[in-house]
């Protein structure tokens, strides 16, 4: 299972690249200095959106999951190691058994570009 997670200021969008299901949520987790300022609020928002695009099935726990986490805003000059770690940690809390890839740019990826990025890593 491959999920493409887009993170913007106070907004998270998750797209399941296999089924093309997509869900978004808005929650106050950013401030004017950092994309994820409230760790718990961001983690809770991400977990709820992931559940919307991945119906619970015991077999899903056996499948490997790759999460492509894309910081779309507040990433001028690239992400610092601390910012990358925050994005990794909020996703681990939401989807424990997964492989994580963190990227940053201002332009969202198409499904095919997201899959290419996943296959490159």
Strand % is 25-35%
Major sheet characteristics: 5 strands, mixed
Unreliable residue stretches: none
Q: What is the CATH-assigned architecture?
A: 2-Layer Sandwich
The CATH superfamily is ATPase, nucleotide binding domain
From the helix content, strand content and strand pairing, which structural class follows? alpha/beta
Oligomer: single chain
- Strand/helix succession: EEEHEHEH
CATH class: Alpha Beta
CATH topology descriptor: Nucleotidyltransferase, domain 5
- The pLDDT mean sits at 89
Rg: 13 Å
Total number of domains: 1
Can you tell me the overall shape?
globular
Trace the largest sheet across and list its strands: 3-2-1-4-5
Q: Could you give the distance between the termini?
A: 15 Å
What is the number of helices? 3
Q: Name the helicity range.
A: 25-40%
Task: Find the count of extended strands (DSSP E, 2+ residues).
Answer: 5
Descriptive notes:
This protein is α/β, with parallel strands linked by helices and 121 residues long. It has one domain (2-120): ATPase, nucleotide binding domain (Nucleotidyltransferase, domain 5), CATH 3.30.420.40. 32% of the residues lie in helices and 26% in strands. It is built from 3 helices and 5 strands; from the N terminus they run E-E-E-H-E-H-E-H. It has helices at 39-53, 81-94, 111-120, and strands spanning 2-8, 11-16, 22-26, 65-71, 98-104. The chain has a 5-stranded mixed β-sheet, sandwiched between helices. The longest helix has 15 residues, at 39-53.
